[in-house]
Amino acid sequence: MRISFRSVASLCLVASCLAAVSVPAAAQIQKCNDTNGYVYGQYFVTAWTQNYNGWYCRTWDGNNNDQIWYLWINLQQNSTTQSAGFDAGVGRNESGGTRLTRMDDSDRINRGMYYKFTNGLIPQNGANYYMGPKTIVSTTQFYSGLNGQYECYIVDNSNLSPSAFANNYNLQYVSQGTYDGATYKHYSRQLGQINQVFSIRQNYRTQGWSSVNWIQRQWVLSGLVPGSAWNLGWKINIETAGKFANGSECGFTDLNLPWNNQ
């Protein structure tokens, strides 16, 4: 899974945003075997692969208000190794594509995002997936160095149970809290020079409002991330690792990703 093996190049989310390709809004877009970031009206669509052996497609569509209706992913991954990873996500585009939806710790504590997740993924041979909001936080803007990197996940759904997820990746329990009608347990681990944070929902879901700012606030209060490091932003995200059968697909619909000034 991506959380186990990660190349330095794959960390450069912001750099890929800076090189984003603009495509017309209000038209269906499909990109296959392509990890470019795409600006679509007010949104930004991302992708990443590592050691990927197979194919994948992202399809998205919107309306005349530059609002994405859905992001749909089809994939087939032939490698059985956990280092064979893929992810795709969507966030609000801001500042010319240099960041995704930003949620500040203090002044926008009630901010969040709404999504619906449709799951048709077919993992094989011990493959894994997980889904939920994600942010990459940097204390050194635009990844000028690695020591200040924080890769942060809210895990709302996975084919691993919450306890199996934590055990499988040797996560260290830090704290827990109740958000959006469920308990989330907060974990951390060090992967090389990268600090990883996971908040795992204890009863998984496939749709709803995610109060990312309340969870982000708990990360800060628990000392998992510095309070001044929120210079990038949030997206809704799916990650896979290992072998997935032909016909595997998933998608995000009913998206509501607020602007910074909302």
Structural commentary:
This protein is mostly beta strands. The protein is 9% helix and 50% strand. The protein is built from three helices and 16 strands. It has helices at 13-18, 162-168, 212-221; strands at residues 21-23, 29-32, 38-40, 43-50, 54-62, 68-77, 85-92, 113-120, 123-138, 149-155, 157-158, 172-179, 182-191, 194-201, 207-210, 233-256. It has a 16-stranded mixed β-sheet that branches. Strand 13 (182-191) and strand 14 form a beta hairpin. The chain is globular.
Quick structural gist:
This protein has 262 residues and is mainly beta.
Distance between the termini: 35 Å
Helical residue percent? under 10%
- Contiguous low-pLDDT stretches (5 residues minimum) are 1-18, 96-107, 141-146
So what's the overall shape? globular
The biggest sheet, with number of strands, parallel, antiparallel or mixed sense and barrel status, is:
16 strands, mixed
What is the CA-based Rg, rounded?
A: 17 Å
Tell me how many strands there are: 16
Mean pLDDT, rounded to whole units? 80
Alpha-beta content class: mainly beta
**Individual helix count:** 3
SSE order: HEEEEEEEEEEEHEEEEHE
Percentage of residues in DSSP E strands: over 45%
What is the oligomeric state here?
single chain
